[in-house]
Amino acid sequence: MKTLATLLLSLVLLGAEAQGGWKLTRDQGGIRVFQSDGKGFRNIRVECTLSGTLDAFERTLRNVAAFPDWVYGNKRAELLKSGGPDDYYYYSETALPWPLQNRDAAVHARFERDPKGQWLRLYEKSENGLVPPRDGKVRVAQSAISWIVTPAAGGQLHIVYTFQADPGGSIPAWAANAFADKGPYESFKKLAVLLKSH
Questions:
Q1: What is the number of structural domains in the chain?
Q2: Residue 8 counted as domain residue
Q3: Structural domain for 116, as ranges
Q4: Cβ atoms within 10 Å, residue 135
Q5: 32, 160 in Cβ contact below 8 A?
Q6: What pLDDT, in 10s, does the model give residues 105-114?
Q7: Pairing relation of β-strands 137-139 and 102-113?
Q8: In the predicted model, is pLDDT for residue 7 greater than 60?
Q9: pLDDT value at position 14?
Q10: How many CB atoms lie within 10 A of CB 145?
Q11: What is the CATH number for 171?
Q12: Contact 77, 93 (CB under 8 A)
């Protein structure tokens, strides 16, 4: 039986295909960013091959407090609680340019791994009701993220990242779409440096 996270990912991908498929919007430094129209905003997919190990990737993504160092636009992030060895919840705030209000979210993250070390998956989704609304910020109530990571030759990792969210509030679609192109590229460029350092 498929897990809930796998079903969620399938719905995200099927939804994007139904809305016209993926369009390559940036191909730079081995990082390929795709977008797909979705209700006035765009879904995002990133594909790249970076130097690193599955353990280094997992350590980096579990280090929530360090997100501001490499996640584009992230102002602060904090671990809220653990639901088990592969299950945790965190809070994240994204800074947007004035006059737009910052966005924040409580997120449920869960790792899945192949016992033979052939792949690692991370699923993240908004968790409503976990953190009360905070003044001056717009809560992202709907988001779904997936990371599918597989080892490649030469000590590298092939990463497929998929992101879908409704940023809420009055943010114009053009602003969200512009953020969607630069943000993933800058984040993965810094992620590449972090993975090499582990």
A1: 1
A2: no
A3: 22-196
A4: 4
A5: no
A6: 999 999 999 9
A7: parallel
A8: no
A9: 39
A10: 20
A11: 3.30.530.20
A12: yes
